[in-house]
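Lab channel / #folding
Pinned by the channel admin:
"Please post every new chain as: sequence first, then the structure tokens as a reply. Keep commentary short and put observations after the output so the thread stays searchable."

First post following the new format, from NK:
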Amino acid sequence: MSASPEQPRDDAFELSYRPLDGADTPAVLELLTASLAGGPTGTRSADFFEWKHHRNPFGTSPGLVAVTPEGRIVGVRLFLRWEWRAVDRVVRAVRPVDTATHPDFQGRGIFRRLTTQLLEQVSSEAELVFNTPNGNSLPGYLRMGWQELGQVPVSLRIARPLSFARGARAALARRAAATGPVVCPLPTAAGWFGSGGSDGTPAGLDELLRERAEADASDGRLAVARTEPYLRWRYGDAPGLDYRVMTCHRGGELAGVAFGRPRRRGPLVEFTLADVIVRPGDRRAAAELLRAAARSGGDHVATHLAAGTEAAAAALRSGYLRAPRTGMRLAARTPAGAVPPELGAWRFNLGDLEVF
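Reply from TO:
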């Protein structure tokens, strides 16, 4: 999530703006923690920052900082690099993330200045800028040329009805969130990727991904190309997020794989199902993976599965129902302005949006 945009003021000239460099990481993490708390892992570590912004297979994140005359960093803005594919072409994109302004310097136009300068910087290399702003920051984005493209719905599957009901009542009563580790019987994604053969790739994954890519090649919606390096980075190497893996096989061959993570959601234990990949047309494999997610030990499963996919069709028959008043707002623009119609249709799973 991003900090709320401020209106510009003339005293912004007191600050200087420069590219983020490696030596800035400790000060940036301190600023992000003070403004946005601990992030998805609960603690903003240098390892997570490095994974997100420097080990990303799509490239290193461009970033800017606002600095006082004394050298103190009081504002930061990063754009996470991303790539979407539509039919036979790559759409290079960036996603605004990790934005903060020190409370003592809010109202000076720092947010807007960092954003406009970074947009200019990436204008020659990115076709699309997209993010999921919260309700507080969305109006400011709209004033800066973003378009709201709709709500990304979340579907739930209740796995333990009594426990879920107790947790929901506790949440409504605003009772303190539970603490402690979450027990999950599923193997870790890191371990699964680490079990690969001589080339490091789990058996059957390359063939599964090749078949999936061929089947999706004619779909004109924007989607992430699910390659082995991307999946390994996204789920196997993510520090502090405890992604788990589910697999199913047909005749000894890998027919599907899914990734998700157990997490505490207030008084509830949620299994966030991030990605489901199956062979073309294999709804049975998708249903098997969806059932495995429901047996992960959580009170419920939360997911978003792209419309028209085998997983989305299987979810309707596996007890996954769209949850009211949930989801994320999707907003986007091009560096030059409005989003053209051909970039307005999307095919993504929850893993493309959560965490970042």
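NK: The mean pLDDT is 92.
TO: also worth noting, The chain has two domains: 10-143, 155-326.
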